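User: Show me a protein chain along with its predicted structure.
Assistant: Here is one chain, sequence first, then structure tokens.
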Amino acid sequence: MAVIESRLRRTSEAFQNNRQAMQALLDRVRHIETNTRQASESSRPRFESRGQLLPVERVGLLLDQDSDFLELASLAGYGFKAPDRQGREIAGGGLIAGIGSVAGTRCMICASDAGIEAGAFQPMGLEKLLRVQEIALENKLPFVQLIESGGGNLMNYKVENFVLGGQKYRNLARLSAAGIPVITVAHGSATAGGAYQIGLSDYVIMVDGHAKAFLAGPALLKAATGEDATEEELGGARMHCSVSGLGDYLAHDDRDAIRIAREVVALLDWDQQTPPPSGPRRPPRYDAEDLMGIMPIDSNRAVDMREVIARIVDDSDFQDFSPQYGRETLCGKARIDGIAVGIITNNGPIDPAGAAKAAHFIQACCQSGTPLIYLNNTTGFMVGRSYEQSGSITHGSMMIQAVASASVPQITLFCGASFGAGHYAMCGRAFSPRFCFSWPNARCAVMGSEQAANTMETVTRAKSARRKKPVDEAQLGAQRDKIVGNFERQADVFATSARLLDDGVIDPRDTRAILAQALHMCRAAQARVTHPLSFAVPHP
């Protein structure tokens, strides 16, 4: 293979401007995450008065010391609710979720953030939970839940949340039936639907004096039947561990519960031994810090994506596939942390030749069992008479069909623009990539805002001409502003990630490490032998 020779000029004005803009966007992401942590932290006096740990502390104790934690969907729900009393916009969907090592075993971890609105279910929190359950199932990761939830917010009840919320129970049943353990620690209340999250678990740890699980709490029970009962009688930890059989382990407090959970995971003997990557693990020849200044914030400015590849692949070594054909669509093979990968990216719009090349390359990677990585940076497919006559629809459809039918793990990273059908052809969220991350500058839309405004202006002028009426230029200007504003509000990563259209926004400098982690998970899942059940009834 050939080592990529970087032509990046770190001292150039463009690089410095790009770097400053990227840092500002990354700072904004971190500020939102900090606001969420501070909102939960503000509940510390209440937790401490009850002898409890904050949710983030529970997660920290669960994880192996000094191990990495790949947090997912930290911007979920951002902008959906009014700021709190301190003026903070809270994100995260009321859940802390991510992948980390527990007793030497890579697990999916999902913890109720009971420091925010008592852990009540939020609409985007449901979407986040469904997504992390899907990732756990696809990658055969033990699923660890730390539950303390006030249940649904009855003041903001929506029937669709109730109906679609049943998917989280279906997913827990499917995880268990597929032979993937579900371990639950009940730190506090779990009413109605939350109780079924416990009941559909393979291992249940309940904290004495705090954990409570019932289909109807005392208030609802009184309203429905007239019966009086205490919370402990209805669903206390001691009752469930000694009478109903729902609980398997009774813990003294939060720390004891986390200790038991770690022991349960350790004794799963969840063998993670997979064949080691066949290639050497050499770091890139260029500094990852450069990734902060490569991508222009203006998606209309050209960038050579080889500069990105050179900073994430082993030894900056890249085998360019069919480099003289469909030049703007870049395909090739490399290694990341010793694992062979196929990479598809864009140095511009996708033309018919580029689409045909990509479809061919995807097929070749599937033939060799090589996972695919998409580095999205395209304003879409080329349009025009010559491109249409060259088979833009035909070849574009071939590429989309190849992406949709690929038999190998696919990982998507939005590095820049991801517009139009190019978003689909480059394995956008709708095509179910195994993992899907964004850089802070990423943008996603059916087209650029100016393009959309120009399109509607042309349509409006043509309509006026057909009616033989003069164009109202003031109205046309207002229309343009409205369209541009609407597109701009929805295109940036703060809008798309808030809607779970990716799995999280990452620091560009962490790209290689996160891709390596994802690839190792895919490799382990492929090698792991699970023991599916013909039933999933884990409790008496």
